[in-house]
Amino acid sequence: MKIFSIRINKLLFDIFILFIFNMVITLFYSGCESLPSQSDGPDNPLDPNNPNNKIQGPALILSPTDIKINTGDEFQLELWIVEADSVAGMSTRIIFDPIEFSVKSVDSLDVNSESFFLQNGGQLIWFCTINNDDGYVQIDCAVVEGSPRNVYGSGVISKIVFQNLSGTETEIDISNQSSLRDAKNQTHTIGERIGAQVNIN
């Protein structure tokens, strides 16, 4: 009788552990669905290896492409280049409504060589203009002394911190005047420019 009781207790304990494990897995996956896209990982919609990726490269993208914030929040968007083929520089303008947003900072990612353009070494020439009155950030950059100078693939070019000024939902866009250039100063056509939809809670 005692052995039978121990077996019952062990069985109940095992069922309890399985129940807890199930709950943790369920909560984990339900929570992950609401998280914004990350810079790394196989589920990243900007990753060209993701089979669900329909982006026509080379592309310039603000990530996350859809973000939820509270009124007055500061938030960060990453400027990505996706599926680049032999580029050494870029000129782009990020456009926003100055009534809705202001830009607090723009990071070139060159301090720790995090910039996509520095994957082959070299130095980054970087010019950035923030105009919160007219609502744009102009970025012009190129890599020099890289070996080779041209770089390929996908990566982050810059991290831009915005502040929301009102409670209106709107988009932050990438200008259609944006361009990519290779080491021979030849212009490369940009396949897509994808901005970010900012939703206010």
Overview features:
201 residues, alpha+beta, Immunoglobulin-like, 2 domains, 8-stranded mixed sheet, 5-stranded mixed sheet, 13 strands, 43% strand, globular, disordered N terminus
Describe the structure.
It is a single chain. With 201 residues, this protein is α+β, with helices and mostly antiparallel strands. It folds into two domains: 1-35; 59-200, Immunoglobulin-like. Helices cover 15% and strands 43% of the residues. The chain has one helix and 13 strands; from the N terminus they run αβββββββββββββ. It has one helix spanning 2-32; strands spanning 59-63, 66-69, 74-87, 89-95, 101-107, 123-131, 136-144, 151-164, 170-174, 179-181, 187-188, 192-194, 196-200. Strands 2, 4, 6, 7, 9, 10, 11 and 13 form an eight-stranded mixed sheet that branches. A hairpin with a 5-residue loop joins strand 10 and strand 11. The protein is globular. The N and C termini lie far apart (60 Å). Mean pLDDT is 80; it is low at 2-8 and 16-43.
